């Protein structure tokens, strides 16, 4: 090969090398650009994913808020039920106390009635009336006055806390006691605490009646220290005493009379048959 | 269920019935009644009681004497005694407590108070 031809080959080789270098540089740049674009695609993909996650979270948040609201409503409803049950419980407790009290009252009334009719002995009947007034009503000073129909006056037959002789006889229609015997209406002073004991003006005066017929009165002058007023039960007991004590006293008296008459008749029969 | 025996020493039948009626509302209670202190002592010597209610003013033997005799009896040293008094009779009440009574109730009797006392002294829930 001639020198000229050699130079030509070298020149082309040089040229080719230059072209190859440029091609390599271009390829390198292309690869870099490709890398950059891939990175960008990844960035965009991540951003897109993030954005769709946030939308999902927003949706979830909405759902949760709705659930919270529902639970709040449910809680309010349950609290309402609890309040209602509590109020009902309180009502039941109050009702229980009332029933308990009523039960006690009925037991007391039953005992009083049972005791009043447990005997036909007039002294025992009077004693039972006194016991009822002391133990169930809480009377400290009182008198039981019976009507003497011949004298038309009330006379004390049994007393507690005061001497029987100290209780004056009372004509029917005279004074508070006489008026109670005449009308058959109960009498109570308005203010028990400020009442001053007075044998003519009692604290309480209850007529003992068989139907409308008054056979005597119960007169109370003083209550036990701890008793500052009358309860519902006391009024019930007064009503019960007005009727049951009257029939108990009346029947025991009839029984005593019939016993006495029977003894007299038996005496006559014994005399006749001797 | 355990059975508790309660002795009521009281001369008034009304009071006896009243206390007895209230106590019967407790389950497992057997009630024995005595009309005075001597009768009460007889019943106490015949069987063992878990609680005694006694009035103070009674014929033959009063409640104070009964409390004193019961407390001096070794077999009844720990048995609770409740005396029945009137609010005004503070001296009697104090004497009864000094003699060994555990508690007292005053007239007019409240059934609830009897029940509360019995529950408390017999340790019934």
On the 0 to 100 scale, the average pLDDT of chain B is 88
Compute the number of strand runs of chain A.
6
CATH C-level name of the domain at 117-263 in chain A: Alpha Beta
Mean pLDDT of chain A equals 89
- Major sheet details of chain A: 6 strands, antiparallel
Distance N terminus to C terminus of chain B?
A: 13 Å
The number of distinct structural domains of chain B comes to: 1
What does the model show?
The complex is a heterodimer of chains A (274) and B (125). By secondary structure, chain A is of the alpha+beta class. Chain A contains four helices and six strands; from the N terminus they run H-H-E-E-E-H-E-E-E-H. Helices cover 66% and strands 15% of the residues of chain A. Chain A is rod-shaped and about 200 Å long. Chain B has helices spanning 13-23, 37-46, 63-71, 90-99, 111-121, and strands at 4-9, 29-34, 51-55, 81-86, 103-107. In chain B, strand 3, helix 3 (63-71) and strand 4 (81-86) form a beta-alpha-beta unit. Chain B is globular. A five-stranded parallel sheet of chain B has the order 2-1-3-4-5, sandwiched between helices. The A-B interface holds A 100, 104, 107-108, 110-112, 114-115, 118, 128, 131-132, 134-138, 140, 224-227 and B 12-15, 17-18, 21-22, 86-88, 106-112.
List keywords for this structure.
heterodimer; A: 274 residues; alpha+beta; Beta-Lactamase; six-stranded antiparallel β-sheet; 4 helices; 15% strand; rod-shaped; B: 125 residues; alpha/beta; Rossmann fold; five-stranded parallel β-sheet; 41% helix
Offer a quick outline of the entry.
The complex is a heterodimer of chains A (about 270) and B (about 120). Chain A is of the alpha+beta class. Chain A has helices at about 5-115, 120-135, 175-185, 230-274; strands at about 140-150, 155-160, 170, 185-190, 205-210, 215-225.
Q: How is the topology of this model organized?
A:
The complex is a heterodimer of chains A (274) and B (125).
Chain A: H1 3-116, H2 122-137, E1 139-148, E2 153-160, E3 170-171, H3 175-183, E4 187-188, E5 204-210, E6 213-223, H4 232-273
Antiparallel strand pairs in A: 1-2, 1-6, 2-3, 4-5, 5-6
Helix pairs in contact in A: 1-2, 1-4, 2-4
Chain B: E1 4-9, H1 13-23, E2 29-34, H2 37-46, E3 51-55, H3 63-71, E4 81-86, H4 90-99, E5 103-107, H5 111-121
């Amino acid at each position: 090969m001639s020198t000229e031809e050699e130079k030509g080959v070298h020149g082309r080789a040089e040229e080719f090398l230059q072209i190859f270098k440029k091609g390599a540089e271009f390829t390198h740049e292309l690869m870099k650009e490709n890398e950059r674009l891939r990175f960008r695609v990844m960035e965009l993909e991540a951003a897109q994913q993030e954005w769709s996650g946030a939308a999902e979270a927003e949706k979830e948040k909405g759902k949760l808020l709705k659930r919270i609201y529902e639970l709040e409503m449910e809680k309010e409803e349950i609290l309402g039920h609890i309040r209602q049950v509590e109020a009902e419980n309180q009502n039941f407790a109050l009702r229980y106390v009332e029933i308990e009290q009523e039960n006690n009252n009925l037991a007391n009334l039953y005992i009083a009635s049972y005791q009043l009719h447990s005997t036909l002995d007039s002294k025992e009947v009077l004693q039972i009336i006194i016991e009822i007034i002391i133990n169930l009503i809480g009377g400290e000073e009182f008198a039981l006055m019976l009507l003497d129909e011949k004298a038309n006056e009330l006379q004390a037959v049994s007393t507690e806390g005061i001497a029987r002789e100290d209780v004056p006889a009372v004509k029917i229609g005279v004074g508070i006691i006489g008026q109670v015997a005449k009308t058959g209406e109960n009498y109570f002073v308005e203010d028990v605490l400020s009442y001053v004991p007075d044998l003519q003006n009692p604290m309480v005066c209850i007529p003992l009646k068989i139907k409308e017929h008054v056979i005597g009165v119960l007169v109370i002058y003083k209550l036990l220290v701890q008793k500052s007023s009358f309860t519902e039960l006391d009024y019930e007991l007064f009503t019960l005493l007005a009727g049951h004590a009257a029939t108990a006293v009346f029947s025991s008296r009839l029984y005593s009379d019939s016993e006495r008459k029977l003894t007299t008749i038996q005496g006559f029969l014994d005399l006749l048959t001797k | 269920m355990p059975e508790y025996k309660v002795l009521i020493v009281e001369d008034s039948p009304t009071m006896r019935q009243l206390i007895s009626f209230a106590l019967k509302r407790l389950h497992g209670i057997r009630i024995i009644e005595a009309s005075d202190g001597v009768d009460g002592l007889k019943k106490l010597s015949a069987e063992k009681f878990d609680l005694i209610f006694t009035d103070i003013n009674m014929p033959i033997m009063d409640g104070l004497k009964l409390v004193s005799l019961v407390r001096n009896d070794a077999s009844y040293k720990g048995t609770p005694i409740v005396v029945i008094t009137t609010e005004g009779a503070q001296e009697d009440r104090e004497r009864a407590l000094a003699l060994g009574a555990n508690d007292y109730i005053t007239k007019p009797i409240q059934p609830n108070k009897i029940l509360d006392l019995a529950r408390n002294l017999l340790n019934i829930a």
